[in-house]
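Notes from hallway chat w/ T.B., transcribed later so I don't forget. T.B. wanted the structure written out for a chain they're using in a teaching module, and asked if we could keep both sequence and structure tokens in one place. Agreed to drop them here.
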Amino acid sequence: MTDTAAFLAEATALLGPRGLTQDADLIAPWLTDWRERFTGRALAMASPADTAELAALMQLCARHGVAVVPQGGNSGMSGGATPDGSGLELLLSLRRMNGVRALDAAGRQVTCEAGVILHSLHEAADAAGLRFPLTLGGKGSATIGGLISTNAGGNQVLRHGTMRALVLGLEAVLADGSIYSALTPLKKDNRGFDLKQLLIGSEGTLGIVTAATLRLVPAIAERLVIWAGVPSLHTARALLLHCEAAAGDALEGFEVVPHASLERVLDYLPGARAPLAEVHAWHVVIEIVADCAGAADLRERGEAMLASAFEAGLVEDAAIAASEAQAEAFWLLRESVAPSERAAGIAIQHDISVPVDRMPDFVAAAVPAIEAAWPGTEAIAFGHLGDGNVHFHVIAPPGVERASWEERDGMAISRQVYDLVTQWGGSISAEHGIGQAKRDELARLGDPVALAMLARVKKALDPAGLLNPGKLLARHATSA
């Protein structure tokens, strides 16, 4: 890096007082990740107003050798948007770039900027009689740029896929300040590599997403949300297959929650009530939906699906939401699992996937293995059974001191979990990215050929290593 004062003077002249700040109080809330595992320092925080300003800023950073850490809503789970402790990296906030540029209702697509909050996009699509079919618990803070950069999933992947399936076009600023512009979607385009897919899931290490054209789908005219109690995760898997056969494309959500997690949520949410009267080892949230064409008989089809599940012995008890308010209440219970756990104490979180048909066996093997190896811990799994992705959390014994336990036991526990996932043919990151939290484990467990390819791509697009250094890949991995 060259003269710091000269860089800051030029950056201030470029961005103005709204676009660049060194005010410690304004920057402080953005220096710690959502899980409070990583805290860094920043040279300053830049908030460009548009793509042209960001491109000019990156040209300035390239000239001065200033590294940049892009950040959206700071709701990531892997420390991928947190600067290091040097105080030399520029924190880049995309939150000012929050415009919806165009919404084409007939074409069922929307072009919006990276700083658009997911909930705001939902509202814009709804106003046009459409919807953006990706939602998650952090929809009030997560930004479109962050969701693209981490290839986010959520509760509707079962039907609509991850962000990779929803991005039709992309705009991004590269490390040298050049602008990659491919917002216009083409269903058939054979002009070489699909470069937008290279940027999706790259966690800001190859380019900074500034805007995207996204796929919209028809609005839901009717939905049925069911809360079911089942005796085991194996039964839940059988119930999933039953629902897929009975509901087909109408099946949009299938989430599993163990009894212990539901109990924590009920303690956490004021006034929350369990949907079922009896205790069940596992709970399943099922959602089937229809647009106008299939709305009339959706409830009848859903009730028939549930009745046949009872007859097959796949469900111990169930409740069908009687209203939209109750449907939302069911989903709130599911979406509050992670926040309730965070409020209750210390836990090590793992966002993992294995082949869908192997998930029940994996959980049955991994939970007792971890709890036996680490007495006093509690291992739980919850989440998106339908796409083979569960959140595997290990809760610390009561009374431990957080920092020392995470450093002493937590890292070793994660290592064991990731070893198990790898042995079962799975992935150590299903939807939250690698960031800095899993970077070293990826280097340890990843395929050497794939890691070498990643490093070569990084070196080609960001030879000076200025884009989100130390995330996804170790700094030295791209220095050769």
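Follow-up for T.B.: The chain has a mean pLDDT of 94. Might be a good example for the class.
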